[in-house]
Amino acid sequence: MGKELVFQALRHEDVERAPWVPFCGVHAGSLKGYSAKEVLQDQAKLVESLLEVNRAYAPDGQPVLFDLQVEAEILGCDLTWVDDSPPMVSSHPLAKDKKIPCHCLIPDENDGRLPMILGAMREMKAKVGETTALYGLITGPFTLASHLRGTDLFLDMYDDPDFVIGLLGYCASVAKKMAAMYIDAGMDVIALVDPLVSQISSDHFEEFLTLPYTDLFEDLRQKNTFSSFFVCGDATRNIEAMCRCKPDSISIDENIDIKAAKAICDKYDVTIGGNIQLTVTMLHGSQNANMKAVLDILDACGTKNLIVSPGCDMPYATPIDNAIAASYAIHHPIEAREMLGSDDGSLDLSGITVDLPEYTLLKKPLVEVFTLDSASCAACGYMMGMVHSVKEELGDSFDFIEYKFTKKENIKRCMDMKVQHLPSLYIDGNLVYSSLIPSQSELIAEIEKVRK
Q1: Strand partners, 404
Q2: Distances in Å between the alpha carbon of 422 and those of 21, 80, 233, 403, 433?
Q3: pTM of this prediction?
Q4: If you ran DSSP here, which 8-state letter would residue 294 be given?
Q5: Which end of the chain has less Cβ packing within 10 Å, N or C?
Q6: Residue ranges per domain, the chain?
Q7: In this predicted model, what pLDDT tens digit does every residue of 129-143 receive, in sequence order?
Q8: How many CB atoms are located within 10 Å of the residue 418 CB?
Q9: Which H or E element spans position 6?
Q10: How far is 240 from 217, CA to CA, in rounded Å?
Q11: Which fold would CATH assign to domain 2-340?
């Protein structure tokens, strides 16, 4: 039974095969023709879509919702909605009012979209909960704090650490309450999803996040509930610190070498999940590429203390056949190897050419931001937000452009520019920030260095 397979992996036991947990957020809606907004606001459409995921992809575990804006919306952030990805936070209540919210302002089951979400969780528990481990995804404290404060949070870490510690304490209290509600609704695994952890140093992790996260995972243990620490981007420098917070598992994306990360996780007896490439493989790749990606993960990691999953929330338009191919390779690895033969499943970019700027001839500095997609990746969104903030400050003294990895020509551009991690920011063709969000003053200083 798939659910028990997930539980065995999280208990660090030997398993007959690695469990499969596809992170189908808004992609679930695409299977039934629903937009992201529909599937994230309508319980009936959400459950219908989740059941189709359960039928088509044979998951051992699956999330009920992948939306890191639920808590932020309740706490006063405005959201911008699009049809093919979760909403993005478009306002920050604490941007001008630097005040830690009262702990009495903690979400309850009647706030925001929680009645719909909790209803969907209970419905899924009744319909597939006996066979499928259900994941409740919660916005991690650091990302929630950034939603509330905006990009100034990164400057606060240097200028006002006591404020940051207090705000993170409040956000951790929100996470505890959300976890309690999700557990009550039947969730088997609580995943604290904090993509912005990849954007800070290991010293800042130890200073600001070790204590709240250790406390959160201990709270989940006291509730007899499995836990996961979910981070996006290149969080390599923080993997060991994450493990020391004692989650049952961590989940990583394609920016991290899963074999190296698993070696660290094994040292702490923490299960690792990941990390099929979202765009190159799942969105744009072939069925063979998806099968090979799964087999490569199994070859690198074995089956113990491993959960195979996409690196993050699957793109809305991921071809159904690709996810089915990944599922097949997990359930039938021997047959998948025979089917692949010598096919390496590489993405075909032949015929695609890109013109790189003549940087020395530009009249103004050019800021190029390479992202997964700032509309759906929190870290990418905050890096682009910082660029927009600096644009308001400096006006027309520089130009900028975003290259989203969801387009094949931008994948080719990343290859030609030798971009290693997303998000990354280049100025006049030179890498300045790789998977690290600068402060406004830092970015202004870097632009000023190259102003003509």
Answers
A1: 371
A2: 23, 22, 6, 10, 10
A3: 0.86
A4: H
A5: C
A6: 2-340, 359-450
A7: 999 999 999 999 999
A8: 7
A9: helix 2-10
A10: 15
A11: TIM Barrel (3.20.20)
